[in-house]
Each structure stands twice: as structure tokens, then as C-alpha cells.
Specification:
This protein is mainly beta and about 550 residues long. Among the domains are: about 220 residues, no CATH class; about 130 residues, no CATH class. The chain is built from 7 helices and 39 strands. Strands 1, 28, 30, 34, 35, 36, 38 and 39 form an 8-stranded mixed β-sheet that branches. A 7-stranded mixed β-sheet has the order 3-11-10-9-8-7-5, with no helix packed on it. α5 packs antiparallel against α6. The longest helix is centred in the N-terminal third of the chain and has 12 residues. It is globular and about 75 Å long.
């Protein structure tokens, strides 16, 4: 279904410009076409809190049980847990939250180590709330649930726990560590320069390992069989049965500036930024753009163009009329006159001279494409804005790291924003002393995949739907007005629209955000949409509200097609 949808999108829109702005949210997936037609209806019933057993919770927040903590420290080493192939089991009644997509409880092991929990069951709880997903490692002991905090979803504050966890028979075990579930940031393959850095395929949240669509890459002494996955990263099966993913570290490209250290045949040094992934939506559709025999004939299509600092040969196309070059020029290279200086598209001859694409064989024998960022598809995180609402006037620093880098920011980013923030949202840049309503940036994020669940709405109902869903997610009136003012005019070309949202989990993967001092509430939301000639039936995306408490940071945005 995913392939069908992708082709459908490309046929309709060609290229996509993603625009992210300040907002709220979490995320979801699954666009499924059916026989019937279902245009989106109001989703107000989702605000009723229910437990995972389906019972409505009418307890007033002020009367809610407070969290209990289990303070004993313990580290479970190898052989302290008897791991088993995950087996779904009955609900533990752990979660109380707005209506969910699904919650599953799976037994993954039993505690063997002598002590408090000897013989107790270890359960992994996976909860999908549409725009986001959560996971909890739980030891079931004497009828109570002990959440292993170190390995479970980061709830930021106990306040969030109290709105999602049934605290009547739950303890937060803050000092328990499952040593076999701690994985290094970097692992190494058997050959030189096979350095792999950990990454998170965010759209799946945490998922069970499946060898389907994977090929064996090598055997690791600690983690066993490592596979190349569908996104051209590398995965292995964790002892608990979940998937752990890594990607190749390219040692001649700086992560800070994305400039490959290459000397071309004419003796000049490369100064341009390149992407070694394929662009999709706001970010990348894989972690390496690996070429196959269907894409290029490496023996006949390529010619040596230079070498990198490691002494590796870099190749370019031998002929200027290669179909892939033509495709990049005709379908992916567009010029947007951001600053009104009259920027225009280069001629094809000028384009070819700019080294628009080159190829490198990595330590796994794969041919990887590097495409100049000057000629990438216009599909970027454009016009993202970040609102800051401290409880009192204070100095705030904001660090944002979109994996694909920035194309524009206001005020100027300069390695980070440094502002004086006011409770009403006003910001004063400490460098320019100018006042701003929000922080503005454009750029490209990391690994991205469009969710498939969402809503179908008639054109005349776009504004109503956006206001309803954004309010449900947690945006205030000013943020919603800003969002609607920009997006409604962009969604008028077709009679119907498929609309979906992603939240904190997706945004944190696309563009990690760090705010100092640490906020009490962070709400990040990203909208994507597909124009439609006819309505289609879709599985609705479940949304939940994030309560705004204390110092709040909000970010919204979307994908412009």
C-alpha cells in the first residue's frame, strides 16, 4: 500500500515543499483505500479519557492518585533475564489516556536474578496514539506494575505520567537497568571504515524485529546477525525482540556542514554541500541513496571525477545526457527566489559543470549517490516557527539540528538562538535587539515517511477541520490563526484533501530541538496532505491533547505540495 500511495502522490503533485511551523502534537500512520467513502467528521469524542480496558475515567485531575516511586537500585546483567520470543498477553490495565489506536502487552521474559523481582514477568507495553507512540518496560510484581523508567518512553515530567498511567497500582522504578538493552551509539563492522551510528526509524516507533526485506550484512561478536534494512541502514534483533538500527558513518563528510572532502580532477576542492540520502517530504526517505544495476551501469556509465581525503575514487556520469542527470534537472531542480534578487535556474550545460551528482563505493561495496543540495527536490522544512512561553521573562537559548541543515532562519541562527522570552510569547533577539513573535527557520530534516491515517475533507471544510484538529492537539487561538492564515490558501486547488498530522516523536527525529532552560511542555506538530479529485475512505487518525503546563514550547508546520 505504501508504494501505491507514493506513486499516487507523485502523480498528483510532483514535488513537495514542507513547511514546518510552531504547533503541538504527536503522530500516526495508515492510509487505506476502501469501497465506501468517508469524509471527515468532528472528532470531539476523542477527548473523553478512557483506560485501555475501555472504561471511561471520570476522576477529577485534582483527585488523581499521585505517582509512587520504587527507589531500590538494581542492574540486571546478561543471564539475569530469561528472554523469550514475545508473546501477547492480557492487559495490565496500565494506561489511562485519551482514546488510543492500539495498546498491546507482550511478555518478553522472566527475572532470574535473586532478589525482589525473582521469578517475575517482564512485559513490554506498546501504545499507539495516532500522532505518537509510547513504550513501557514493566515488571509485574505482586499484582502491581513497576515501570522501568530508564528504558521506557521519556515523559519529561511526572505530571505527564499522572495523566497517562493508572497510578493506583503502578510504581516508577527509577534506578533499575536492563544492561542487555543498552546499546552503544556506535558499532563496527568486520572491515575497515565500517563505522555505524545509531538512528531511529521514527515512523514505526518501537517495533518488533522482522527479517523480511532485509539481507545479511555481517555477524557482530556481541549482537549476532546484522542485516541491511530497506532504508539501507543496518539492523539487528535485540534480546527483547525489538529492532535496533544503525547507519554508515561517511568519514569524508563533516556532519556539521555536509561538505564532502573531495578534490576534483582539475585540482579544485569541493566547497558545496551534498546529500547522500534520497529526499522525501520534510527529510529523507532512506539513510543512504544506494544505486542498483537498474539505476546505473557502473562499468559503462561512470568516469573518474576525483578523489576524497581517504584516497577513494569519486565517479560522475560519463555522458551529460544520462537519464538520471536529465531527471534531476527536469524534475528535481527548481529555483525559489527567497530574497527577491531574481534568482533563475541554470542552463543545462551550466548545471552539468557544477558536479550535480557523484558516486562513491562504500566499505560494504555499495554505490552511493551524492546529490548537490543546490539541486535537490524542493521538499524541505520551510517556514517552521517556534513559540516560547516562559512563566516569567527570562533568557532562553534554542538549539535546533535539522539533519539536512538550514536554508534560512530569522532571527539569524548563528549556531543557536539566544533570546529574551516573555510569557505572552514575545521574543527579543539578544544579538540584534529586535523583537519577534516566534523563531523562524527553513531547512531539511532527517529520515521521513508520510503517515497514512488521517482525514478526508471537502475543500470548503479545510479551515474548519484544521481549526478543530489543531485545537484538539493543544494549539491556542493565536497559533491556530497563524497556521490557518498560511495553509488554507495552499489547500484550495482540489475539491477534496487528505490531511494527516505527526507530532513530537516525528519532529524530534527530523529536527532535534533543545531548549535551555528545559521547558515543562513541548508540543511539536507537522501536517502533511494530499489533494484529491474524489474522496477516499481512510482510517481516521486518533489525536490526543498535551496539557500546557509551565514553560511551554510550541512548533507547527506542514508539507506544501
Amino acid at each position: 500500500m505504501k508504494i501505491v500511495i507514493t506513486v499516487f502522490r507523485l502523480a498528483l503533485m510532483g514535488v513537495a515543499l514542507l513547511i514546518i511551523g510552531v504547533g503541538v502534537g504527536y503522530w500516526g500512520y495508515a492510509l487505506i483505500q476502501r469501497d465506501a467513502v468517508n469524509v471527515s467528521q468532528p472528532q470531539s469524542e476523542q477527548q473523553s479519557p478512557v483506560s485501555d480496558s475501555g472504561v471511561f475515567d471520570t476522576t477529577d485531575e485534582s483527585e488523581a492518585s499521585k505517582l509512587s516511586f520504587f527507589d531500590e537500585s538494581d542492574t540486571f546483567k546478561k543471564s539475569d533475564i530469561e528472554w523469550i520470543e514475545h508473546q501477547e498477553r492480557a492487559s495490565l490495565g496500565l494506561l489511562i489516556a485519551p482514546r488510543y489506536e492500539s495498546i498491546t502487552y507482550s511478555t518478553i521474559g522472566k527475572v532470574k536474578k535473586s532478589g525482589t523481582f525473582e521469578g517475575d514477568e517482564l512485559v513490554l507495553v506498546l501504545a499507539d496514539y495516532g500522532m505518537d507512540s509510547e513504550h513501557y518496560y514493566v515488571i509485574v510484581h505482586n499484582g502491581s506494575n513497576y515501570i522501568i523508567e530508564v528504558h521506557s518512553s521519556d515523559m519529561v515530567t511526572a505530571q505527564v505520567y499522572e495523566t497517562t498511567i493508572d497510578t493506583s497500582h503502578t510504581f516508577i522504578a527509577k534506578n533499575i537497568i536492563l544492561e542487555e538493552l543498552i546499546f552503544p551509539d556506535t558499532i563496527y563492522g568486520p572491515k575497515s571504515r565500517q563505522t555505524l551510528n545509531r538512528y531511529n526509524p521514527f515512523w514505526t516507533g518501537m517495533s518488533w524485529f522482522d527479517s523480511k526485506d532485509k539481507t545479511v550484512a555481517f555477524i557482530h561478536p556481541d549482537y549476532g546477525t546484522v542485516y541491511e534494512n530497506a532504508g539501507h541502514g543496518f539492523s539487528f534483533k535485540s534480546p527483547d525482540g525489538t529492532e535496533i538500527a544503525y547507519k554508515l558513518a561517511i568519514d569524508f563528510v563533516s556532519e556539521e556542514d555536509a561538505v564532502p572532502q573531495v578534490i576534483w580532477n582539475d585540482g579544485t576542492r569541493n566547497r558545496g554541500e551534498y546529500s547522500s540520502t534520497d529526499i522525501g517530504g520534510c527529510g529523507s526517505s532512506n539513510v543512504a541513496s544506494v544505486m542498483t544495476a537498474k539505476d546505473i551501469d557502473s562499468k559503462n556509465d561512470l568516469v573518474v571525477a576525483g578523489k576524497n581525503t581517504q584516497g577513494d575514487v569519486m565517479w560522475e556520469f560519463k555522458k551529460a545526457d544520462h537519464p538520471l542527470l536529465k531527471k534531476i534537472y527536469d524534475e528535481e531542480y527548481f529555483v525559489i527566489d527567497y530574497d527577491g534578487t531574481g534568482a533563475q535556474k541554470l542552463s543545462y550545460d551550466e548545471f552539468v559543470k557544477k558536479h550535480p551528482v557523484f558516486f562513491w563505493k562504500d566499505s560494504f561495496g555499495r554505490i552511493i549517490k551524492f546529490q548537490s543540495r543546490a539541486f535537490l527536490p524542493v521538499a524541505e522544512c520551510a517556514k517552521p516557527v517556534i513559540y516560547l512561553y516562559p512563566q516569567q521573562e527570562q533568557r532562553v537559548t534554542v538549539d535546533l539540528k535539522p539533519e539536512g541543515g538550514f536554508t534560512y532562519s530569522e532571527p539569524a541562527y548563528n549556531g543557536g538562538w539566544d533570546v529574551i522570552a516573555f510569557p505572552d510569547g514575545r521574543l527579543v533577539d539578544t544579538h540584534s535587539r529586535k523583537e519577534y513573535p516566534y523563531l523562524f527557520w527553513e531547512g531539511r530534516g532527517g529520515y521521513y515517511e508520510i503517515p497514512e491515517q488521517g482525514f478526508v475533507v471537502e475543500r470548503v471544510g479545510v479551515e474548519r477541520l484544521l481549526r478543530e484538529k489543531l485545537s484538539l492537539i493543544g494549539l491556542n487561538n493565536t497559533e491556530i490563526d497563524d497556521f490557518v492564515e498560511y495553509w488554507v490558501p495552499e489547500m484550495q486547488a482540489k475539491p477534496y484533501y487528505f490531511v494527516t498530522f505527526m507530532g513530537n516523536q516525528a519532529m524530534d527525529a527530523l529536527a532535534p530541538l533543545t531548549v535551555d532552560p528545559q521547558p515543562d511542555t513541548v508540543i511539536r506538530v507537522l501536517m502533511d496532505f494530499i489533494p484529491l479529485d474524489q474522496p477516499i475512505d481512510v482510517e481516521p487518525l486518533m489525536l490526543r491533547t498535551i496539557p500546557r503546563k509551565g514553560f511551554t514550547v510550541v512548533e507547527w508546520g506542514g508539507v506544501r505540495h
